[in-house]
Amino acid sequence: MKMPMKKGFTLVEIIIALMIFSIVAVVALAALVRILDANKKAQTIQDSVVSMSFTMESMTRELRTGSTYYCVVVQPNTDLSIKNLTLTQTAGCNGLNGNNGVGVGFAFYSSKTANGNGQSVCQLINAYEIVPNMTNGVFNGTYSFKKAMQTACNQSSLSFIPVIDTNSLSITNYFVQMNNTSYPLLFVKLDGISGNRENSKTYFSIQTAASPRIP
Questions:
Q1: If we measure between CA atoms, which residue out of 43, 51, 41 comes closest to residue 145?
Q2: What is residue 98's three-state secondary structure?
Q3: Which is it for strands 169-178 and 161-162: parallel, antiparallel or unpaired?
Q4: CA of 182: how far to CAs of 64, 69, 72, 93, 178, in Å?
Q5: What is the DSSP letter of 46?
Q6: Residue 30 CA to chain centroid, in angstroms?
Q7: What does the domain layout of the chain look like in residue ranges?
Q8: Which of these, 70, 111, 95, lies nearest to 215 by C-alpha position?
Q9: Are the C-beta atoms of 170 and 204 separated by less than 8 Å?
Q10: pLDDT tens digit sequence for 14-47
Q11: Helix, strand, coil abundance in the chain, percent, nearest 5
Q12: Model confidence pLDDT, tens digit, residues 62-75
């Protein structure tokens, strides 16, 4: 009794199978790349929101426990000088924004005090500023968000340090409004871009408002 012969795959069938497998693999790889890009973009958004939210919440908390808000326009290449600054309310922050390439600074007495000369007690000053970034003397379209704080009465050496990592975040515009009343309301809004790669860039807008607590 003869056994039936088992036919194998022909060369044409193998080629067709490989072609189908290659097409499926390419489609699956493209889908995987899109998923990875979407995940990276989502992670970038999350990191940006966490960083910005923490910064804004910390500033808001300081403002609410502080007093005597002071707000003023800050020119390019210039930091807000708070050395021996006597804070008085001002209407300088009447709807300021970054469209004109200038900056803004706001300072306030914090809830912390220190002993000065003769053991007299003074209130320490905290300050924030949003200043334009310059490249070869020309505004490059982004801003830095900085902070300075006194640790002693009439502190002479005081410098602003960035509170946002500009390597992953770029502030492109701002809006600051402060009404000139006994208990002023300071409103701050920041717009910008997170991410460096074109396909992972995300636009964000975050805002906060604070007023001193009524004693």
A1: 51
A2: helix
A3: unpaired
A4: 14, 10, 17, 15, 12
A5: H
A6: 33
A7: 36-210
A8: 111
A9: no
A10: 888 888 988 998 888 888 888 887 777 667 666 7
A11: 30, 35, 35
A12: 999 988 888 888 88
Whether 206 contacts 175, CB under 8 Å: no
pLDDT digits (tens, 9 = 90+) for 116-151: 665 567 888 899 999 998 888 888 889 999 999 888
CB atoms within 10 A of CB 72: 16
H-only helix segments in the chain: 11-65
Q: Within 13 A of 30's CA, how many CA atoms are on the CB side?
A: 6
Q: Quickly tell me which residue has 């600074």 as its tokens.
A: 105
Nearest residue to 70 via CA among 105, 98, 111: 105
Q: What pTM, to 2 d.p., does this model score?
A: 0.74
Residue with tokens 């209130």: 123
Q: Are 141 and 172 in contact (CB under 8 A)?
A: yes
Type of residue found at 200: S
